[in-house]
What we know:
By secondary structure, this protein is an alpha+beta fold. The protein is built from eight helices and 15 strands. The protein has helices at 11-16, 55-65, 76-79, 103-111, 135-139, 141-146, 148-161, 163-174; strands spanning 2-5, 29-31, 35-38, 44-49, 85-88, 95-100, 115-122, 132-133, 188-193, 211-221, 224-226, 231-233, 240-243, 250-251, 254-264. A nine-stranded mixed sheet has the order 1-3-4-13-10-15-9-7-8. A four-stranded mixed sheet has the order 2-12-11-14, with no helix packed on it. The chain has a two-stranded antiparallel sheet with strand order 5-6. The longest helix has 14 residues, at 148-161.
Amino acid sequence: MKLLQLNHDDAAGAQLLKGTYANESHYDQVVDDDMVVLTPDGDVVAVLVEGVLSPRARRRAYKYLSTIEGMPSNRATAVYRGSSLPRIRKRDGSLSRTRQVPLSVLDMLKAKGVRGDVLGSLDATPRTPRCRLSSWSLKNPQVLRGVRQLAQEVDELFKVWVMDRYIAQLAVVWQARDWQLHGTAFTTITVNKNFRTAYHTDKGDLREGFSCLTTLGRFKGGLLVLPRYRVAFNVKPGSVLMMDAHEFHGNTQITGERITAVLYCRERINRCKS
């Protein structure tokens, strides 16, 4: 495993790019092989392990995750800057305080083959004060079962390569065993298909932990860029990127079919009752 210490750090500049698309002017180097990546201060910001997931786990996960039909209606910043409008209440047509991506934008994304949904557990929110399984998990439990081997293989890599983050995350998951994903340090998987996300940070993820991302399908592009450090990652199918998803990140243009699975722990999951 190689070590790369970055020499650029511009948090304010990354903040200014919020809600815009990544392009090649935002990075100086591309990581596409085994690499531990450090910030200029020496902290681990990401680890890429190339080509490690078994063909069986990948085939099975693809079989189920490729059936995704949901849309990223509550991810306005990741869709693009300004893609957030008040929700219209069905009962009377009035405007809600809750904001979402307008239907016209979602229809445009859907026509391009974009999909986005969540598997596994969701913690409580002001609108939904109880922890629960996601709608996709409840309606299609075979999909949740179908990612078991993938989740467990990613979990083993996480434990080996970023042990301190893994231990912190597993400690939180153990406080909410009923919401644990297949015996791993994860509770939840966000799945995207052909979704070129604009620069955003992942909200609701455990700050002490790491998010673990892998890809499926056949595609070109889709580099994941961290503009703060001017570095990009080429996460090829079978590879796993473990990273701090609280840093601004986004994707370059995608061609072909790219399915991403991001495994993580929900921030408030340990407050959930059985």
